[in-house]
Task: structure prediction
Amino acid sequence: MGSISAKLWLALGTILAVPGLAFAGPETASDQSAGQGAPDRNWAIHVQATDVLQYHPPLRSPYEGPNSLPGHAETANTLGASVFVGVRPWRGAEAWLDMDMNQGFAPGNTEGAAGYVNGEGAKVGHKSPYYRPQRYFLRQTFELGGGEDEVDPDLFAFGGRTTKNRLTLTVGKFSLTDVMDDNAYAHDPANDFLNWAIIDTGAWDYAADAWGFSYGAAADWREGAWSLRAAAMDLSVTPNSAVLTTAFKQFQFDGELERRQSWLGREGKIKLLIFASRGRMGRFDDALRLAAATGASPDTALVRRYRTRTGVSLNLEQPLTDNLGVFLRAGWAQGQYEPYEYADIDQTVAGGVRLVGARWGRKDDTLAVALVVNGISKSHQAYLAAGGLGILVGDGRLPHPGAEAVVEAYYSLAVIKGVHLTLDSQTIVNPAYNRDRGPTEVVGLRLHGQY
Result:
């Protein structure tokens, strides 16, 4: 971790050590209410920083393509930091701004595996730090009764008292993963797993720019044991682009139904998510036919038409004891069309378990392991075999295709309050669906602090 990283962590440590900078606005009148719950605040500031150092040894690699994980040993480092500023302009409303800094490159420059190994690494790497406002949105909550509820505060949520039944609207620039496909055990690459196909459903091709954010609106209606969510979001100008379309010329609709149930005396959740992307995308068969006629490598960019790509996924989380929980995700998307934004995955199944360290006297430590198996359609395989390139994969050939499997395990050690050091290991079998290459091991260290 270089000098930039050292300076960042020194600054973060200074912030954490000075309660006077305490990132909470002046108390409102409700703060005086008999000490019940956390005091309400008019404004808040949170900071976080994450440094990920990863290494993979040489792997079996009889050939490589433009989007291959390098066959030689590689060390890679990414660094990210965020400042979240929030205000409450009126009752039930929150306005948030998220300014991010990114630096460095992930292994293979974010290419080489469909289930990619660094969820903290953006698709846009750079050797010098660069800064972008990634989120700026307004959230309004309408209380609908049903008794009192307490919402936990988050990096970009005030939390506090509200009603059990409520409607929440979000408008602006944010990530769809902020509002959908959440899972208590696998959703946050700064704190839990790192693999893209574990922290989110790999086949959920959610609308986003190269950093994972988009413009749009989302609604979350919570009633009793059910929640219904819907969103309309802007797609990129072209698949896997850093630039979003103007005037919603290309867009995506998402819907998620959640049921909260009690198993083994503990509340778990099960979610069903559907999406439909409407934009200019290529069909693999069309690209292969054009390539056969011209003698060139297939390229979906040459056969893009205005089309609709749909998908569905299932997401389950369930605590078994106070310290042990399990999760399961499964997803499918139409495999005749090129994935638009996220990853080269048409089918996926992932599951895992997380154990809190209270059992061995480390209540703030966590140990977890997960397995994900990803697949693609026959036409998708044929496209890669003919030399086509995807969002993350493309070895130039694919004579022996197979399902890609990743096993990830991590131990997160609480260093001081708000700071964790994590040892992470990922074993990738058939990276980029290629039986000729790999397997490989990617080991990493992650240092994360937030306040």
In short: DSSP finds four helices and 18 strands in the chain. The two ends are 21 Å apart (CA to CA). Residues 1-5, 7-39 have pLDDT under 50 and may be disordered. The domain at 41-450 is CATH 2.40.160.10 (Porin).
